[in-house]
Amino acid sequence: MKFILGFIILAAALVIHPFFTMDQELELPFMFKCVSLPLSFLQDLMTQYLPKVLPIDAYQIDSNPFFSLMFFRMISVIPITKYYLVWELSSIESQKIYTSANFNITVYSKNRQSTDLRPFAIFIHGGGFIFGNGDAYSTVTQYLAYNSNRAIASIDYRLAPEFIYPAASDDCIVATRWLLSHAKEYGLDSEDVVLVGDSAGGNLVLSTVMNISQVEKRQVFKHVVPVYPVLTLHNFRSDSYTTYRNDPAGILSRRLMLRYWSYYILGNDSLVENFLEHSHISRETQEYFRCETSSDPDCINIACGGSDCRSDKKTAVTDMFDKLLRDPYLCPIAITPEEATYLPPIHLVLSRVDVLRDESILFEKLLNRYNVNVSLRIFNSFHGGFSYFIFKGMDIAITEYVVDLL
């Protein structure tokens, strides 16, 4: 009986969910609703609701990659969205580069006769650090190559939970360095390079530019375009995290983002409750990222304030995060003035309906304070709007803006 009831709930979710959870200011096409929202709800259903009516333990579901990752990994392997393309890509060439390291690179470019070196952009895909690859994002990268004057080099990197931090960050840094040193072999101009990444890819783009700029002691890249990047573990109670915690677009809820963080750091979801309660933050770390004890009038609060936003007890979790919360390669918002010294111009591209929105607004303030050339633009879109433009009827303003930045 419990199994029958579970399947009834599942069927009802698929029918009802796309039509009663939408932000009324978002104009989303019918096909997007029918694909995205049920998939998002299915994961919530498996991890939060089914254990209440079926003899299944929630931890067993979350700890089993088949259950917790299968929908996202399916989409990554089979880019089904190509069936809804709104343009032709017949004039785009792709070249696979298989290296001896832990990464593969695909270069997309327009067919052309010139032998001149081509300016190019390095694209690092999103996916919560746990899913996605160059093939799944190929429609996005081909669109960027088709509509811009740059070739697009798309990097694959190792994914959590099988490979936890700093594997993805290390891969992107190594792959970017490899591309810069071998660019000429593939007709690319290493002196005219842009970095682009969305969501988790935005995080990896920033860790990459910080590392290479610091090592080289100069601006290596023309500019950087993080699209609604993942930036911080310091505050999950911002206005955007609170307002859009259930994500009306069905892409990224607060709990799902916290699960991504937990998978990326530990390879499982055991940190989610710590994040929700902010018990991963010690009193010392909270004070370090708050302004109450600072004499600097321009101090910017990064951490959540109040006694309910920290743990007053030292634990193994707080000991671990005392270090991680100060690591700008994991949390770019922890960047110091020294680490910002050689950064190129950074163009932050955000969506209004997004739990991550406010941390980028805060990040812009920090970069301005550190004298980094930074811009910020917020679109009436949702987390994922940059890459989901491929659905017919979708507003593609955010994607067109990224093309213009290239």
Topology readout:
Elements: H1 2-20, H2 30-53, H3 58-62, H4 65-77, E1 92-98, E2 104-110, E3 118-124, H5 138-147, E4 151-155, H6 167-182, E5 188-198, H7 200-216, E6 223-227, H8 239-243, H9 254-266, H10 272-277, H11 283-288, H12 316-324, E7 346-353, H13 357-369, E8 374-382, H14 397-405
Parallel strand pairs: 3-4, 3-5, 5-6, 6-7, 7-8
Antiparallel strand pairs: 1-2, 2-4
Helix pairs in contact: 1-2, 2-4, 6-7
Offer a quick outline of the entry:
The chain has an 8-stranded mixed beta sheet with strand order 1-2-4-3-5-6-7-8, with helices on both faces. It has 14 helices and 8 strands.
Radius of gyration: 21 Å
Please state the structural category: alpha/beta
Give, in spatial order, the strands making up the sheet with the most strands: 1-2-4-3-5-6-7-8
Largest sheet: number of strands, sense, barrel closure: 8 strands, mixed
Number of strands: 8
Strand content: 5-15%
Q: Which bin fits the share of residues in helices?
A: 40-55%
Number of helices: 14
Span of the ends, CA to CA: 56 Å
Shape: globular
What's the order of the H and E elements? HHHHEEEHEHEHEHHHHHEHEH
Contiguous uncertain segments of 5+ residues: 13-24, 29-33, 54-87
Q: Could you describe the 3D structure shown?
A:
41% of the residues lie in helices and 15% in strands. It is of the alpha/beta class and 406 residues long. An eight-stranded mixed β-sheet has the order 1-2-4-3-5-6-7-8, with helices on both faces. β5, α7 (200-216) and β6 (223-227) form a beta-alpha-beta unit. α6 (167-182) crosses α7 (200-216). It is globular and about 65 Å long. Residues 13-24, 29-33 and 54-87 have low confidence and may be disordered.
